[in-house]
Design brief:
By secondary structure, this protein is α+β, with helices and mostly antiparallel strands. The protein is built from two helices and eight strands; from the N terminus they run H-H-E-E-E-E-E-E-E-E.
């Protein structure tokens, strides 16, 4: 007698559950792919588009300043002969690529003896070793200054050429990243700051590779690190301070480059 074979029955409910599982897995995979594409687009926007947009805008501003100065010589934008006395405070409002601090000083700016307006571009910074030519604007506001690809002057530090410390900050990555290669500077490198009437030449003298974002000593009139006291100065002088974030693509620490004024000459 032939032995009967029992054929298992597949329930419709089991088929529906499996179909639901497949749909859930497929939907999850689609979401992951979509999220990955969006992240890549965001990274491309930050690393490419913001750089291109900011660099082009900064270059146009440099050209506009040079055209303006060419037609209006004789007005000192920097107040280069002045000096400061009483203490004040300077805090980076951007939270990006800069260091807060306290410095002295009455500053002179555009229009002959008045302060530059907040976020106003009023000078041009040139660093031949880096092939850099970038506007200097008043203040370190992230949206109005740094994200435009400009270098920002710490409010209440001195102006170019003045006794004390002319201190600026710039992005190292994204938004034009003017200070991307600041770590390549070496002692003796030339840095020029051009204003409406005068070009000031500084030479790089000291480099602090890493310090805290709260190290306010680096932008004082006589700059000296509070967290790395072996770095800095003890005597008054005519100083330049350049600050940016380090390591790259982070804002954990600050890189600081100091220079000393060695020459000034009238524009034109």
């Amino acid at each position: 007698m032939a032995r009967s074979v029992r054929i298992p029955l597949v329930q419709h409910s089991s088929l529906r559950r499996r179909a639901r599982y497949r749909r859930v897995l497929w939907t999850g995979a689609e979401l992951l792919v979509t999220t990955g594409v969006l992240v890549l687009l965001l990274v491309a926007h930050q690393l490419w588009w913001t750089n291109r947009e900011a660099r082009e805008g900064a270059e146009r501003k440099v050209e506009a300043l040079e055209r303006e100065w060419g037609g209006d010589r004789g007005h000192d934008l920097s107040g280069g002969g002045g000096g400061g006395a009483s203490g004040g405070s300077a805090t980076d409002s951007s939270g990006s690529g800069a260091t807060g601090g306290t410095t002295s000083g009455t500053t002179s700016g555009s229009g002959g003896g008045t302060n530059p307006r907040a976020s106003e571009a009023y000078a041009v910074l040139r660093i031949p070793r880096l092939g850099l030519r970038v506007p200097v604007a008043e203040g370190t506001d992230k949206q109005k200054v740094l994200n435009k690809g400009y270098v920002g002057h710490y409010a209440h530090t001195q102006q170019p050429g003045q006794a004390g410390n002319f201190a600026v900050a710039g992005h190292r990555n994204t938004h034009g990243e003017p200070f991307r290669h600041l770590n390549r500077l070496r002692k003796g490198d030339r840095v020029e700051v051009e204003t409406r009437s005068t070009t000031y030449t500084y030479t790089v003298d000291k480099i602090l590779p890493r310090t805290s974002p709260r190290d306010s000593g680096v932008v004082r009139p006589v700059p000296r690190s509070l967290t790395e006291p072996a770095y800095g100065y003890t005597l008054p002088g005519h100083y330049l301070t350049l600050t940016t974030c380090t390591p790259e693509y982070t804002s954990r620490y600050r890189l600081v480059v100091w220079g000393k004024l060695v020459a000034s000459r009238p524009r034109g």
